[in-house]
Each structure stands twice: as C-alpha cells, then as structure tokens.
Design brief:
By secondary structure, the protein is α/β, with parallel strands linked by helices. It is built from eleven helices and 14 strands. It has a seven-stranded mixed beta sheet, sandwiched between helices. Strands 2-3-1-4 form a four-stranded antiparallel beta sheet. It has a three-stranded mixed beta sheet with strand order 5-6-7. The protein is globular, with a radius of gyration of 22 Å.
C-alpha cells in the first residue's frame, strides 16, 4: 500500500490547532516537532552540560511541524485537499509501507484465546488438533492482530458471551478481528464500520478468507457525525453484542448511539481504556442506561462490559 506523507509547517503557537484539525478530518495519528523543545531541554537546571554532540545542536534549528500519513486512496486524497485549503507551507511525499508490513510479520504468530478460539496470521500454519475455531487474519495496515491487550481482552469477552445466533456490531472495526471472531464462534451476522476505507476493505477480505463473507457487511463512516450511517446501522440491527475498541473519548461520544442500536439484554464491550480512565467510562456507560457493568484488566488496560 502507498501512503501520502504530509508535513505541515505552522507557526509554533498553532501546533495544537493543526493536530485538532487533523483529528476533525479523520486523521488520528501524527508526529509533532516543536522548535522550542530542545532549547528548553538545554536550559534545564537539572543538568550541567560540558559537551553536546554537534548533531544534537542542529535540533535548535528544527522548524515546528506536524507530520501525518494518509492512505493513497480516494479518502486520503480528499483529506489532503482539505489540508491544502487551510495550510500553504506543506511538504508532500509518496511513501511505501511494503518493507514495514513484511518486517512486522515475523512477530505475529498464532494466538490461542481461551478454550475455543485461535487467531492465526494468513502466512502461518496452525495444527488444530483440538478442533478450535481458527480465524485467519491479515490486518494489512489496519489495527487489530490479537496481540495487543485491548484486543485480547475483547476476544476473551467474545468467547464468554457468544453462544450462537447473535447479531454483532464491530464499531471502529480496524482489521475486523472482533466481529469476525464472533462469527467464527457462532454469531449469525456481523456488521462493521470504520472511518478508514482501508479498514473496510481489509474486513471484507478477512471475512472472505474465513468463509464468512456472506455473513458480513462493512461500512465507511463516523457514527458520531454521520446520521446516514446511524440510520443504516439501525436498519441492520438491533445488535446483541457490540464491540468498541477505540479510545475513551471516542467511546464516550459513541455510547448513546450504541445503546440505541443495542437489542434488549445486549452486551456492549468497551476496550482501548487505560486503568486511569476506567471510572470515567463506567460512569458514562451507566448514564446511558447500561447495567451489570464489569471490568477485566491486563497490563494496565481495561475492558468494560455492560448489559442493556
């Protein structure tokens, strides 16, 4: 896959505004270089500097910038157009992630989840002597391989809650690992959505690889702002199990919509939450009307499950 690397050079005092703007147009990750950071570091009273490498001193001349990577597709080019309408001092470069994708593959091995489920990358073999449900996955550039605690916690919840014949919604689906795993465990239908076109494409590719394409539908859009997407999801629902593995701020904003999309007695599974924000998310889940709320933890991360 090709990427568009965009480097924006605003005035230093506008760095935060640029980051907010990028988030508003659907770009959730960026890197920031602040021209004053190294100066402040040098002026720190904590150390006495006798020698500083000359190459480090070059950092004093760094221009403040914000860098983002856009998918080289229709959505990415639309985002680029929005950036260029606002900012003039911009550098643009085409970048390939082929080397990156191939390098990280050696770290992604089959993962056993609980008693029934295995997540296996498409390039690895798995000796399924215990007749487990094996999900074959190729995440591409989308988030979700099963290795991160946030995803593992959701998968453990899925293994506990999926009994068969459920209608499942995977909100902010990434690779589709959660919804596809639920289908493999016996759910009857999986509906997926994400703000990234690459995720929508990856989900359907992974569903096809696992023979679950007929049970899967994936849509592009932002549930918080896109009324048309909400109405479409409502038509496909209601949902018996809802996964939302994103970040607390987005979860909190989505919760009222997800509650309305849930069936009676549905389970809403929220992950991507650090322990410090657990109480905040629980409070918002309770405010929406969810009950029987419980938490599971793993290495500082929390999954919170509530019932409608």
């Amino acid at each position: 896959m090709e990427w568009i690397k965009v480097k924006i050079y605003p005035e230093r005092e506008n760095l935060e505004k640029v980051q907010v703007f990028l988030t508003d147009i659907g770009i959730n990750g960026c890197t920031v270089e602040d021209s004053t950071d190294f100066s402040e570091f040098l002026e720190s009273k904590a150390f006495n500097w006798d020698y500083i490498d000359e190459s480090l001193m070059d950092l004093l001349n760094v221009k403040s910038s914000v860098t983002a990577y856009l998918h080289d597709n229709k959505q990415g080019r639309e985002q680029l157009d929005k950036i260029l309408k606002i900012y003039n001092n911009v550098e643009i470069e085409k970048v390939s992630d082929e080397d990156w994708e191939n390098n990280w593959k050696k770290y992604f091995k089959p993962i056993e989840i609980g008693q029934r489920l295995v997540i296996k990358p498409s390039w690895e073999e798995y000796d399924n002597t215990e007749n487990k449900k094996v999900v074959t996955l190729d995440p591409g550039s989308s988030f979700g391989t099963g290795t991160h605690e946030t995803t593992k916690l959701c998968l453990y919840e899925a293994e506990k809650l999926i009994e068969g014949d459920e209608n499942v919604l995977d909100a902010g689906c990434g690779s589709g690992i959660l919804g596809i795993s639920a289908l493999a465990l016996g759910a009857k239908k999986g509906v997926f959505f994400d703000i990234e076109q690459s995720s929508v494409d990856t989900v359907m590719k992974n569903a096809e690889v696992n023979g679950l394409e007929a049970l899967s539908q994936a849509f592009l859009g932002n549930l918080i702002y896109d009324k048309q997407l909400y109405e479409l999801l409502k038509q496909k629902g209601p949902y018996d199990v809802i996964f939302v593995n994103i970040v607390p701020d987005v979860i909190n904003a989505m919760l009222p919509y997800l509650y309305n999309l849930a069936s009676n007695n549905a389970h809403v599974i929220c992950s991507g939450i650090i322990e410090e924000r657990e109480r905040e998310v629980i409070k918002n889940m309770e405010s929406c009307g969810l009950k029987d709320i419980s938490s599971q933890r793993m290495n500082g991360w929390v999954v919170i499950t509530g019932r409608k």
